[in-house]
UniProtKB/TrEMBL annotation:
Domain of life, per lineage: Eukaryota
Upper classification of the organism: Eukaryota, Viridiplantae, Streptophyta, Embryophyta, Tracheophyta
Name this protein carries in UniProt: Protein kinase domain-containing protein
GO MF, one annotated term: protein serine/threonine kinase activity
All residue ranges annotated as the Protein kinase domain in the record: 1-220
Segments crossing the lipid bilayer: none
Organism expressing this protein natively: Aegilops tauschii subsp. strangulata (Goatgrass)
Length: 262
């Protein structure tokens, strides 16, 4: 079981402090004390749909943690249960990938196969890649698929296939169905929608690795931040202009009052 030996060979894997009575390990690069405010599921339930720039920021936290797992040498690691309840949020607002109960190490084999479905109770099955549900061979690209659904959920503000029952999810995947994009197109600007669609490609080989995901998200983050700055500047100019007009009006009324008093 991964929890028994994670800390022996993964430098940045640390045990949590009994988060909600769950024995969790999480990925952490900074060291020191880490205090959690809850998991991503509770954060999304409270916040609903997130602003694209904020969603991308959180997605980068997840992608960096997953890149660490997938690029670990000599044995890469598949999380296999990446979903919002298994992503913790610390007191600085950063996300930590956690809960490695179902993780799998890729030793000499590049792919693995399961005799029985790999999933967790509740809504976790909504994030499972179709090749796992079909009991086919799979590799670490199953985590990229799950990541795409999480990223889209942060922007849409609802569960993947929220209008479907749990037992209908596998059928939806079998028909190559994906959750619809209902948010305005501007929320998926600068290639964000295309990145999500690439990450949940039916063919695992077409899904990018997390290093590529990080690069693309970083570029999108820069463009979104630039767009937001341009939104703020006209507003500041307008407020400054209104402030000057009010000042002129006040000075004018003061001058007229002083002349009339004479």
């Amino acid at each position: 079981m991964f929890l028994n030996f994670a800390s022996l060979f993964l430098q940045h894997i640390r045990p949590s402090v009994d988060y909600q009575n769950r024995s969790l390990y999480f990925i952490d690069y900074q060291g020191g004390n880490v205090y959690f405010q809850g998991d991503l599921r509770k954060h999304l339930n409270r916040k609903g749909a997130l602003e694209p720039l904020y969603a991308v920021k959180l997605a980068l936290d997840i992608a960096r943690g997953m890149s660490y797992l997938h690029e670990h040498k000599p044995q890469a690691i598949i999380h296999r249960d990446l979903e919002p309840s298994n992503i913790l949020r610390d007191d600085t607002g950063h996300l930590k990938v956690a809960d490695f109960d179902l993780c799998k190490m890729l030793k000499w084999r590049r792919k693995v196969r399961e005799d029985k479905p790999v999933t967790s109770p509740g809504n976790a099955c909504r994030y499972v890649a179709p090749e796992v549900l079909r009991k086919e061979e799979y590799d670490n690209k199953v985590d990229v698929f799950s990541f795409a659904l999480i990223l889209q959920e942060m922007i849409e503000g609802c569960l993947p296939f929220h209008d479907k029952k749990i037992d209908e999810i596998e059928k939806a995947h079998s028909s190559k169905e994906r959750p619809p994009f209902r948010a305005p197109a501007k929320h998926y600007a600068y290639g964000l929608r295309e990145l999500i669609e690439k990450c949940w490609s039916e063919n695992p080989a077409d899904r990018p690795n997390f290093r590529v995901v990080i690069d693309r998200l970083s570029a999108i983050q820069i463009e979104l931040a630039r767009r937001n700055r341009w939104k703020v500047r006209p507003l500041k100019c307008f407020l400054s202009f209104e402030g000057l007009r009010k000042k002129d009006r006040n000075e004018g009324s003061t001058n007229r009052s002083s002349r009339s008093s004479r």
